[in-house]
Design goal:
With about 130 residues, the protein is of the alpha+beta class. The protein has 2 helices and 10 strands. The chain has helices at about 20-30, 85-95, and strands spanning about 10-20, 35-40, 45-50, 50-60, 60-65, 70, 75-80, 100-105, 110-115, 120-125. It is globular and about 45 Å long. It starts with 9 loop residues before the first strand and ends with a strand.
């Protein structure tokens, strides 16, 4: 018997790493490693690596939620990109499992929810 996969709506994955010196990281990833830069701004720089996304962000961004979900958004984390029409379903699936969420909008105005896995690793769901 097969069960429906609740992660079916995931469209892609992004990698997010923090940097204590964004300028040096941009030089390293762009010039030294030769990654293809697709966006650069004061808040982050994005690279395309064969269809996968790597975002380099400053290391000092912090958010807190009332229910003690304290996270550092600059911690390395996986971002699962979903179709915008499936975002609320993914949210419901996580809430149903009693997973604490922190919702934000990203710099491009899309919905994003952060949560931790059972080992405390940071993850996010982003509406594509």
């Amino acid at each position: 018997m097969s069960f429906p996969n609740p992660m079916d709506p995931i469209l892609g994955i992004r990698f997010v790493v923090s940097s204590s010196n964004l300028r040096e990281s941009v030089k390293f990833y762009g010039e030294t490693l030769g990654l293809k830069e697709v966006f650069s701004g004061s808040e982050f720089t994005r690279y395309d690596i064969g269809g996968m996304i790597l975002d380099i962000i400053p290391g000092a961004i912090k958010k807190e939620k009332q229910n003690q979900l304290a996270i550092s958004l600059s911690d390395p984390h996986l971002v699962f990109e979903v179709d915008p029409q499936r975002y609320e379903r993914m949210k419901w699936l996580l809430i149903r499992e009693d997973i604490t969420l922190l919702e934000l909008s990203d710099l491009e105005g899309r919905n994003k929810m952060f949560f931790k896995d059972p080992d405390g690793n940071l993850n996010a769901i982003l509406s594509g």
